[in-house]
Design a protein that fits this description.
Structural class: mainly alpha
Distance between the termini: 30 Å
Largest sheet: none
Low-confidence stretches: 18-40, 270-291, 294-317
Mean pLDDT: 79
Order of helices and strands: HHHHHHHHHHHHHH
Shape: elongated
Length: about 325
């Protein structure tokens, strides 16, 4: 029962991260493929529980046999993760997830899933933090990794570490973008930093940071929205009103109503620490509001992805 409860907490968390990825315009196909049950491998609903479990155990053994022959077979790794997940063996998904991270160092989705699994299966927060830091060595300006790590640090009562992480990345951004153009979205990082300041009620620094983001990327509605929410949190509704209106006027159509609702909703009495668009609060609003939209590079996509077919890296079927 305890293992099932852990699984029930873990899976919605990962699904919400997928929704965040979609809203940011990040490719989420590999992640969805890992956590969504393959229809061909899911036990039939007409089977008894014992028969379903036996079928899943047989599938897991089959994938393990494939991996003994082909340790880098990504379809087998994903199949093993899914089988163990359905068996409520969340801890058992960590080793194949670590292998997927090793095989896909430039795809941050795998590192996010590994970090969250370590947290929810083993209560290993430090292991999760280390996973994010290792992934950032390969992609130091990756927005998803930075937002998840900064949010985790704030939640662990380490806000200065979160703020320092974002500030250090901003300082390194010119050099990183010179080596790999476009690898660091400076405007988006400034929005994350503004939210981090706001989550700690460092409102002056938050407003200054949002203003810098607005000057750098005047077409980014999130910078306006972050500033408006910060003003609203301070009770400065009159100042916030035209900024909310500006955010709504330049936001993608699917977010306009949501922004208008935020403008008219009283701020929460106890702000949550969500500096960077977390999965529990996919928007990462600065002070208790947990419904603001988030996109990357001004491009929004729908938040409900479809489950894709497995990719074709190595043989797909487990050994019988």
């Amino acid at each position: 029962m305890a293992e099932e409860s852990k699984r029930n907490r873990w899976l919605p968390r990962i699904v919400l991260i997928v929704a965040t990825l979609a809203l940011m315009g990040v490719s989420f196909v590999p992640l969805v493929g890992m956590i969504s049950s393959n229809k061909g491998n899911t036990p039939s609903a007409v089977q008894t529980p014992d028969a379903q479990r036996k079928q899943l155990e047989d599938q897991a053994r089959g994938y393990e046999a494939v991996l003994q022959r082909e340790p880098d077979n990504q379809n087998a790794l994903k199949g093993l993760i899914d089988a163990r997940r359905q068996l409520n063996d969340i801890k058992g998904t960590i080793a194949p997830l670590e292998k997927l991270v090793q095989l896909n160092p430039t795809e941050p989705q795998y590192a996010v899933l590994l970090a969250e699994t370590k947290r929810y299966a083993n209560n290993d927060t430090e292991g999760a933090i280390q996973t994010y830091r290792e992934a950032l060595k390969t992609k130091p300006g990756d927005l998803l990794l930075l937002q998840e790590l900064s949010k985790l640090l704030v939640n662990q009562q380490r806000p200065e570490a979160a703020i320092g992480l974002l500030q250090d990345t901003l300082r390194e951004a010119p050099k990183l973008n010179q080596v790999t153009p476009g690898s660091v979205d400076v405007g988006a990082l400034q929005v994350l930093l503004g939210r981090a300041f706001a989550s700690q009620k460092r409102y002056d620094e938050a407003i200054q940071t949002f203003d810098t983001a607005i000057k750098a990327t005047p077409s980014d509605f999130q910078a306006y929205l972050g500033k408006a929410l910060t003003l609203k949190e301070q009770g400065k509704d009159a100042e916030a009103k035209p900024i909310f209106e500006k955010a709504a006027s330049i936001a993608p159509a699917q977010f306009k109503d949501q922004i208008n609702r935020l403008a008219s909703t009283p701020p929460a009495p106890n702000p949550t620490a969500a500096p960077a668009g977390s999965a529990t609060a996919p928007n990462g609003t600065p002070a208790g509001n947990t419904s603001a939209p988030e996109v990357k590079d001004g491009k929004a996509s729908e938040a409900t992805p479809a489950s894709p077919a497995p990719d074709n890296k190595g043989s797909e079927k487990p050994a019988n």
